[in-house]
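It is worth pausing here to work through a concrete case rather than discussing structure prediction in the abstract. The textbook approach is simple: state the sequence, then state the predicted structure, then interpret. We follow exactly that order.
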Amino acid sequence: MTTEVQHSDITHHYLRAKKKFPNVWCAGCGNGIVMGALIRAIDKLGLDKDNVAIVSGIGCSSRMPVYMDFNTLHTAHGRALAFATGVKMAKPSMKVIVITGDGDALAIGGNHFIHACRRNIDITTILVNNRIYGMTGGQFSPTTTGGAIATTAPYGNYEKQFDVVNLATAAGASYVARGTVYHVQQLEKLIEGGITKKGFALIEAVSNCHTYYGRLNREGDAVAMISWMKEHAMPIQAAAKLPPEKMVGKFVTGLIHETNATEFCEEYDKLVERLAAKEAGK
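Step two, the predicted structure:
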């Protein structure tokens, strides 16, 4: 049995293959690559399916939990982190993973995103960033590149874009990383690191939407867009050795930020214990 077949068997073990396929994604979409990386990370960590909850909002990437055989919640647009916070508070021992897109997390769900980072609640969030609203017709999102064309920006997007990892770091997340759908093995390791980290973990997965973003901005098909990631991604260790002019047009990948900080559920439990002791007169 080849290594490729073994990997395929692992992936299919965690899919609702007989119930929910074929999927809705366009051929060549990076969402399947991200889902495979997540499944292999979970398998490598040896997590019990019944102790994993995967939550999403609405969007192309947010269809991911529908296809995976875990405890899953497909919730309202932008509200995945709000639902996930409830799950984590009710079941602190459960591994809670959120799948979201750039529009879902940073526009409609922007408020939930920054406050989940600030609370440092023990949730792993995988933000698939394809720089556009793919499912709803190609509208520009908070990560759409300046000047890029979208169906709601036919003359070019004039708004500044969010830097996802800088936003999460500034808001208080404990683990912040960026990978791409080209660098699959790195992405898998970053997701694994986020799941094992205590506190809020954000993994930005740079992906492609060739159907809308690529077509509207003449960036080519899926192969061309994923090849662009290969040429423009720079590991953080290598980037640190380069002068600023060598980084023009590049973006950094790897573990960007990591710190140890108090976690929300643990602090909440301490508060409950303290108030219970006070009520009991201790």
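Step three, interpretation. The chain has twelve helices and eight strands. The mean pLDDT is 95.
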